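Below is a filled-in request sheet from our internal design queue. Each sheet records the structural input a requester submitted and the sequence that came back. We keep these sheets so that new team members can see what a complete request looks like end to end.

REQUESTER: design group, bay 2
PRIORITY: normal
MODE: inverse folding
CHAIN LENGTH: 140
BACKBONE (tokenized):
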């Protein structure tokens, strides 16, 4: 009987130690599972923080662009158009009038003023016609 009790106690101690080892293994696995789940949660939180930072920076950039575009729209720029200048007909009329006036004054020695007026009018007409012809050729 002593032997049977001894055998039973030995068997129970072996089985009980084995269960403790199994329990220790289960506890370690549980600990590792908790650690892993915490790491997953922390990783998700870090990703959310990074995502929020990028959203905030994008919103800041949009605000800067809106602010800078509103500044640009409030400023007025004046563009001076290039002056076209005189047409060929106008230049020809002025030059013709001058040459005609001088020529008329020289030709009519009795009445130089009357000659200058007549010569100026004739020269202006001929110069305007010549300038108009030159303008039409330049357009083509």
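RETURNED SEQUENCE:
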């Amino acid at each position: 009987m002593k032997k049977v009790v001894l055998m039973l106690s030995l068997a129970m101690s072996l089985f009980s130690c084995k269960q403790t080892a199994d329990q220790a293994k289960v506890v370690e696995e549980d600990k590792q599972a908790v650690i892993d789940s915490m790491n997953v949660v922390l990783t998700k939180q870090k990703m959310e923080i990074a995502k929020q930072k990028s959203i905030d920076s994008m919103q800041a950039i949009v605000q800067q662009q809106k602010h800078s575009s509103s500044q640009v729209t409030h400023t007025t720029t004046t563009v001076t158009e290039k002056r076209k200048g005189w047409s060929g007909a106008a230049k020809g009329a002025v030059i013709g009038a001058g040459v005609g006036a001088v020529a008329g004054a020289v030709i009519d020695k009795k009445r130089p003023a009357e000659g200058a007026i007549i010569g100026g009018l004739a020269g202006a007409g001929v110069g305007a016609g010549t300038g108009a012809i030159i303008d039409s050729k330049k357009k083509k």
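SHEET NOTES:
- The two ends are 134 Å apart (CA to CA).
- The mean pLDDT is 81.
FILED BY: M.R.
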